[in-house]
Amino acid sequence: MTTLDRVVLCSSEICATAILVFLGCLGCVDFSGGKNPPGHLQICLTFGLAVMVAVQCFGHISGSHINPLVTVAAATLGNIPLIQVPIYFVGQVLGALGGFGLLKLATPSSVLDVTRNATSVGVCSPHVNPQISPIQGLLVEFLISFMLGLVCCGVWDVRNNTKHDSVPIRFGLAIAVLALAGGSYTGANMNPARSFAPALINGDWEDHWIYWVGPLGGGFLSALFYRVLFGKEPAEDEHANATEVIPLNDKA
Fold first, then answer.
1. What's in the GO CC field (predicted)?
2. pTM, two decimal places
3. Does the pLDDT of residue 234 top 60, yes or no?
4. I need a surface site. Which of 65, 194, 199, 215 has the fewest CB within 10 A?
């Protein structure tokens, strides 16, 4: 890759991740003064549809990973070279910080304080349900991240290369259903970059390690599991009939 290629790749991840964090966290803001806060269903659908928007806008440029979990899974499968992983990570973290920074800029501090007063953490900050232990929270984040990794592997599989028209919708709905299932446990972040930006800006670090270990472990092990058990090398004629076997990830 040229230096310009790396800049374009990183810029794509910055923009895509900023879209995810800005739109997703925007849907968590409570303007009702605590009387009618956004519901669980609304928040989950907002994040899922934000993923859909990001993938639709930038999937053809960088793959629109918008998540270190996805990048780890792609590298484990061999879809991207290891040298590109830091480029993705830097873009995702910068994009998350930029997206959340825009939310803070666009929202009165008095409105954001309502969320902190109601939940003891800032808007969009990751936190584990106090009724479960940190280890149980880690297990939930790992399992739903593992499932998200399997979704990615299935989409990238060469045997699925003619079924990509609806990929943004499928990814968006996958995020939504995983968030609906796990949201009451840990918030179902499944994304270290998305977790890091609100935690840093809001100053909420309790049990933050869960939101790195769970998703990254789930992404790596899901891709390794899929590669070992279900992996299939593409045939020459399959490559000849498709200029981009894996449209969400440029092959190395």
1. plasma membrane
2. 0.88
3. no
4. 199
